[in-house]
Each structure stands twice: as structure tokens, then as C-alpha cells.
Amino acid sequence: MQIQLSSLDQMRAFAKALAGHLRAGDLLILSGNLGAGKTTFTQSLGRALGVAGRITSPTFVIAREHPSLGDGPALVHVDAYRLSDAEELGDLDLDSELEESITVVEWGAGLAEQLSTDYLGLTITPMFDIAADADDGREGAADEAAADADDEADEDERRIVELHGHGSTWEDRLQRVSDSIRTVVAAVDASGFDGSHGSVDEEDSQ
Predict the structure, then answer these.
(1) Of 2, 126, 168, 182, whose CB has the highest number of CB atoms within 10 Å?
(2) CB 74, CB 102: distance < 8 Å
(3) CA distances from 87 to 29, 83, 147, 154 (A)
């Protein structure tokens, strides 16, 4: 599933729609460059799930648990950026919380897949990254885009989000998730919703 989001409001609507389909034991693995919006997405997801505490990038503590303010599952927020290998991720003992929580791992591709055979992978790509990659004649464009990611994220809120379901659980749920997200995001701003990206194709500022 691939969807284009044209504003932060649509990002929040996307996270809220996805939250309605999540349950204890779900694992989300987030990918994207600095400034892509991984932490912004997780903040919106946490609000939609109704968990306690301010969600910030957990880079220096690696993982934080946000308990539910109601009767829902807790949200475990992990930043794997500083981890060198899957063994270090295993040392966090996330397995003990995985079944009772919704776990979101930023920078988790290539590391967090060991936690479960069933997981949802999300790749967030800002439109300014796509433009920089397309500009072959501009020397160092990608490096400059990464260095200025925070500033540019404020100027251009457009994102491409790709979702890939892994395991039988997500194979069964992804179509329902797709339909829900498509409806909710389109309602936020129909003019910014690109139907070619909002349908299943059968896939803070950090």
C-alpha cells in the first residue's frame, strides 16, 4: 500500500486510522531518513491510542514505554539508530513486553524483524527527498537534503508512506487498513489526496 500525504493534518489522520486497527502484540518497523517524520507519526499514533507521557525521540534511552490511559495496550517506542546489530536490540528484552503492547521501532529495518514474523513495515519519504534524488545535476543534493531535513520538513509537509504487511496476520488485515486510511485521509483534504497513491498497489521530524 502506498499513500501520499499532503499535510501534517493528513499524517495525523493516517496515524489515527491505523491506530484503530492495532492491537496488543503488533509490531511496527519505521524507516525513513532524518526529517522524514517517523517521530511525528509515532506522536500522532500515541495520541490516537490514548497513551500517557509525551512521545519524543528516545535516541538516548533507546526505548520508552507509554502506558495506556484507559484499558488499551501500552505503546513501546524504540529508537534503534544507535544500535549496531540485532544482538543489541535483543538485549533490550522487548520480547517480554511485545505480546502485551504495541511496539514501534524507528530505524528498525534489518534489526527488529527478529522480534516477530508478523509485523507492519512503514517507510516514510518526504517529497523534498524525492526531488533531491531526481536532481542528478546537483552535486551533493542528497547530503544537503539530509543536513537541512529539519528546516525543509517545516516548509514541505508532503510525504509518501509505504506500508508492507509481513506474516499471515497482516496479510489478512492490510486491505481493511487500506480502506479505512483511504477514507479518513481523503476526508481531511480531498484536494491533497492522490487516488493513485491512496489505494493498494499490491506497500519532531525524525
Answers:
(1) 126
(2) yes
(3) 17, 9, 30, 36
Which amino acid, 203? E
Residue 201 covered by a domain:
no
Number of separate domains in the chain: 1
- The contacts of residue 130 (CB under 8 Å, 6+ apart) are 160
Residues 67 and 72: their CA atoms lie apart, in Å, by 9
pTM of the model: 0.77
3-state secondary structure of 166: strand
Any idea what the CATH number is for the domain that residue 13 is in?
3.40.50.300
> What does the pLDDT look like over 127-165, one tens digit per residue?
876 655 655 544 544 444 444 444 444 458 899 999 999
Instruction: Give the range of the structural domain holding residue 147, as residue numbers without chain letter.
Output: 2-196
Residues in the chain: 206
3-state secondary structure of 168: helix
Whose cell is 498497489? That residue is 201
Let me know: does 128 contact 160? Beta carbons within 8 Å.
Answer: no
Integer-rounded Cα radius of gyration of the chain: 17
Q: HSE (CB half, 13 Å, CA atoms) of 116?
A: 28
